[in-house]
Amino acid sequence: MTGVNPAAAGIRTLAAVTSHPPSPALRALASDTLLNAAGAKELLDLASRLKAASVAGHPAPPLLQGKNLAVLQPASGATVSVLHDAAADLGVRVARVSLGEPPPTVGECARIARMLGRMYDAIDVGTTAPATAAELATHAGVPVYRGLADGSHPALALARDLAPADAVVPDAAAESDNRRFMMQALLLATIG
Description:
disordered N terminus, 6 helices, alpha/beta, four-stranded parallel β-sheet, two-stranded antiparallel ribbon, 40% helix, 14% strand, Rossmann fold, 6 strands
């Protein structure tokens, strides 16, 4: 987790990662399970600190330097996602990985999951079939997200709560930034 401390000049800066592990509520966030109120508040607080530091001109340092994230996507997928940018800002190396065509059978998934778990600190399964995604999550041994890269992960719905209270209609850029801060908070909470 991170903390924001006032600097001598009164500007809020992102301090450092603390040594305490994320709460069980946040550990469950890797999957697409619904978030309880305590977990939502913890994630929003972290995202709010990241946003405040960025607005003050102090974006997050590469707190996850040396970590690796695999983003599973179809063989034809070649777009750079907001997740890639959010992770890279934290120092995470992002690799796009294709499971190939046809997709692996459920039996092959256990072997593939163990291999991916040894190579990466976290995996986003994207739009992988639910049975394949569940099998990967069971055997990977690392956090497995479902839908961070395509923006459908339930935790990203909290991004709307990061909008300034005085904004009647948030603009697209602010919404995109808020989603990035939520992704970063989730990455920090689950693989940091």
